[in-house]
């Protein structure tokens, strides 16, 4: 009948017993159709109270099919038979307790059959002994005291067709334009590999890695040398990302070689590391300004931006995956900065600032990653977040000139109108612009196993916070790293979700010693996000 929402296993209809059972181990006979014969249809099927007027495609089972004491019943009956054997071992042959279970039962792990004749004889023998006991004496069955834990392989999972509160009840694409609807619906389809061994199985990612290696060789990023004595090379890894077009189609598969900068030693491999990035409040202000003045928003991407930075220190890196067969016992001496190095963002930022100052921009004192060009009634604003650039202004011709000047210095990819920036979906409407983090929110729910949870109506309950979080002696502390990771993701989500700002602010006060009460509030907030994952900020004309 499918998966059970209340037990780890399949819901099975027993043809012999005419009732539902549950089992983790089943065999599928795809060529056997028992109800296809006339005898089943006329006799068994009509006389079955469970199958009449039932819908096998319900999202969840009714409570009448569930017996929460099934597991407890199995242990109790097994213990009873064992005690009966020990009491009658002198007069009765030894009986295997496994005989009390039917060998043909499709759900032997969950359902207990009627005792076999051997078991009946044991019970009758014990009943005669019990009849000789004095009045008022009662025999009790010992219950098992062992702790039962579910194996890890039977951990929580979500089957979309059997989830009571699926995404289809809360995610709505009907109000989006056709282009935005295609983008929002396609952006989750392709899974990005997490390792080199997984990526080499797909030719698309293999081609992407070859393109990245070719670009690194063309820019003379490293030289293959022997490792000097006393030096230790840092590692490297591949990072994979799918780039989408504005209509949701796959633009390209992007593979990037990243150095493991956490192995660098200060004073030897690096010195200064700070590099500014644009603030989120600045992004929202400029987008609001463009909506009010009806300015277009353009997006640019710099290919291999960190390779343009000149490296001042001597840094040695191990041979990346894909080149190991060519160079044994060799290392890469980096001539230019590489993604992952601690000083790489700073080197790239210095290079970009010098170019922008040369073509007429000046750096804002409010945000050092915002550059402004203003002269002769021309006003252009550029926002820089590492290698992602937003460009807007009141003169389209001057914006095109700025693009050409940047393309003469760097390899720039023009992504045209702004659609997706730093995990934020920018949706253009007739009334203005909407900022949403739908994909980010759904990924967050999937990561913490809340994709099938029941939505909540509010992010936090103030009364619960006041009454239940003041007793430190009763607090049960939870995993600090998991809690901090969740709250950090919620903080980034609050940039476009001001409705969760207070709840996130409260949770962030307990980052060092979170308790189970704080964890419950955090998961209550995730349930609230499940109710409207596509909600966001609206900028109206």
TrEMBL record:
Domain Retroviral polymerase SH3-like: 1-38
EC numbers: 2.7.7.49
Composition-biased stretches (Low complexity): 117-139
SUPFAM superfamilies on file: DNA/RNA polymerases (SSF56672)
Organism of origin: Helianthus annuus
Keyword terms, alphabetized: Nucleotidyltransferase, RNA-directed DNA polymerase, Transferase
Domain Reverse transcriptase Ty1/copia-type: 220-461
Polar residues bias spans: 77-112
Top-rank taxon: Eukaryota
High-level lineage: Eukaryota, Viridiplantae, Streptophyta, Embryophyta, Tracheophyta
A GO term for molecular function: RNA-directed DNA polymerase activity
Record bears the keyword Transferase: yes
Pfam families, A to Z: RVT_2, SH3_retrovirus
Protein's recorded name: RNA-directed DNA polymerase
Spans annotated as Disordered: 62-149
UniProt keyword Transferase, yes or no: yes
């Amino acid at each position: 009948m499918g998966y059970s929402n209340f037990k780890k296993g399949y819901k099975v209809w027993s043809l012999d017993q005419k009732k539902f059972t549950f089992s983790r181990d089943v065999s599928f006979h795809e060529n056997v159709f028992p109800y296809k014969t006339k005898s089943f249809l006329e006799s068994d099927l009509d006389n079955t109270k469970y199958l009449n007027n039932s819908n096998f495609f319900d999202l969840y089972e009714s409570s009448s099919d569930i017996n929460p004491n099934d597991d407890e019943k199995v242990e109790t009956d097994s213990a009873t038979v064992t005690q009966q054997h020990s009491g009658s071992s002198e007069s009765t042959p030894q009986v295997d307790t496994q005989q009390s279970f039917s060998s043909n039962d499709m759900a032997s792990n969950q359902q207990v059959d009627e005792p076999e004749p051997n078991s009946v004889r044991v019970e009758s023998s014990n009943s005669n002994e019990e009849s000789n006991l004095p009045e008022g004496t009662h025999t009790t069955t010992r219950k098992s005291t062992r702790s039962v834990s579910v194996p890890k392989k039977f951990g929580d999972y979500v089957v979309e067709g059997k989830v009571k509160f699926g995404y289809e009840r809360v995610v709505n694409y009907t109000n989006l334009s056709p282009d935005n609807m295609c983008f929002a619906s396609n952006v989750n389809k392709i899974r990005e590999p997490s390792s080199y061994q997984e990526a080499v199985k797909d030719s698309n990612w293999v081609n992407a890695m070859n393109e990245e290696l070719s670009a690194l060789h063309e820019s003379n990023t490293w030289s293959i040398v022997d490792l000097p004595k006393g030096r230790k090379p840092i590692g490297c890894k591949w990072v994979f990302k799918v780039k989408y077009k504005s209509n949701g189609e796959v633009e390209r598969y992007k593979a990037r070689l990243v150095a493991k900068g956490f192995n660098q030693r200060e004073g030897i491999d690096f010195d200064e590391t700070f590099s500014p990035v644009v603030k989120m409040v600045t992004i929202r202000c400029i987008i609001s300004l463009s909506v009010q003045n009806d300015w277009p928003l353009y997006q640019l991407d710099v290919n291999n931006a960190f390779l343009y930075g000149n490296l001042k220190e001597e840094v040695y890196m191990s041979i990346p995956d894909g080149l190991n067969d060519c160079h044994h016992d060799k290392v890469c001496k980096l001539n230019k900065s590489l993604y992952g190095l601690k000083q790489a963002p700073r080197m790239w930022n210095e290079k970009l600032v010098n170019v922008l100052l040369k073509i007429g921009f000046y750096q804002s004192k409010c945000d050092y990653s915002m550059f402004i060009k203003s002269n002769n009634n021309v006003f252009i604003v550029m926002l820089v977040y590492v290698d992602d650039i937003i460009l807007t202004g009141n003169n389209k011709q001057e914006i095109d000139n700025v693009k050409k000047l940047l393309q003469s210095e760097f390899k720039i990819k023009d992504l045209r109108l702004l659609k997706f920036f730093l995990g934020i979906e920018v949706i253009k409407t007739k009334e203005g612009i909407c900022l949403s983090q739908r994909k980010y929110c759904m990924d967050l729910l999937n990561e913490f196993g809340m994709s099938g949870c029941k939505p909540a109506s509010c992010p936090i309950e103030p009364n619960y916070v006041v009454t239940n979080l003041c007793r430190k002696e009763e607090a049960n502390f939870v995993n600090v790293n998991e809690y901090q990771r969740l709250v950090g993701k919620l903080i980034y989500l609050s940039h476009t979700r001001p409705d969760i700002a207070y709840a996130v602010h409260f949770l962030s006060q307990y980052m060092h010693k979170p308790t189970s009460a704080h964890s419950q509030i955090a998961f209550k907030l995730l349930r609230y996000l499940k109710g409207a994952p596509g909600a966001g900020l609206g900028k109206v004309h």
